[in-house]
Amino acid sequence: MGFHNKPTTFVGHVRIKVENLQRSIKFYQDVLGFDILEQTSSTVKLTTDGKTSILSLEQPEDVIPKQGRTTGLYHFAILLPDQSTLANIVVHLVNKGIRFGSSDHLVSEALYLKDPDGNEIEIYRDRTPSEWNWNVDEVDMAVDPLDFESLLKHATPDTPWKRMPAETVMGHIHLHVSELQKTEEFYVKGLGMDVVNRFGEQALFLSYGKYHHHVGVNTWNGVGAKAPAKNSVGLESYTLVFDNEGARKQVVTNLKQIGAEVLEEDNHFVTFDPSGNRIELTI
């Protein structure tokens, strides 16, 4: 649908920190069906197509468990290509005895589960954009119950779930932040996103190219929440992929104009939102 490839800017990759790398690899391979693209003693890059990594795991030195009531990862969201794939993973998770939540967001159907360290994962499929309802510049979203009876009609018992399809992408990321006013300025004036939904005074959903959201931010861990320790389980960083160098340089200029920190590292730029969430800017 064009929301996760150029020329649209999109979230291409997420890096998370875990306590036990081997335990996490087993979960992401055996339960979720990722493959390993590259691996070191403390990191692994995971792939669905054998070419590109959309998710990396790393085990920091002196790692500590996930800290509550902090900023950082709320969840990262894996976007499946179609409804039958989502139905098949429901059957797979039930057969594996994996507990999960669910929701119908109007624009999508979603499952929610946690990895062994408590990092939350959304697995979802989008409804076609023609089914989304826009009120001027805001898209309708909800947290309605998921209709499993209807969804499971699309399961394919003859071709059960075995692994993540090659077409799987990183759909979006949702973050805990400490406040919303400066956060909105950073993502809109700095990164060039549009606010496409406001959830009261507690959350914002932002996107490029009229997607329902590439990034969500919320204050559900409390206004003024502190950043977690650097060696804590949770988010290390996420990557925004720009169409070309000109588009990226414009964003770097915009970020500097609003006073955001921008660093240059290994052929890409790095910035931090007002709550300290690290974002890599690539092309």
UniProtKB/TrEMBL annotation:
UniProt keywords, alphabetically: Metal-binding
Domain of life of the source: Bacteria
InterPro entries in the cross-refs: Glyas_Bleomycin-R_OHBP_Dase, Glyas_Fos-R_dOase_dom, Glyoxalase_1_CS, VOC_core
GO molecular function terms noted in the UniProt entry: lactoylglutathione lyase activity; metal ion binding
Positions of the VOC domain: 10-126, 169-283
Alphabetical list of SUPFAM superfamilies matching this protein: Glyoxalase/Bleomycin resistance protein/Dihydroxybiphenyl dioxygenase
Protein name, as recorded: VOC family protein
Lineage: Bacteria, Bacillati, Bacillota, Bacilli, Bacillales
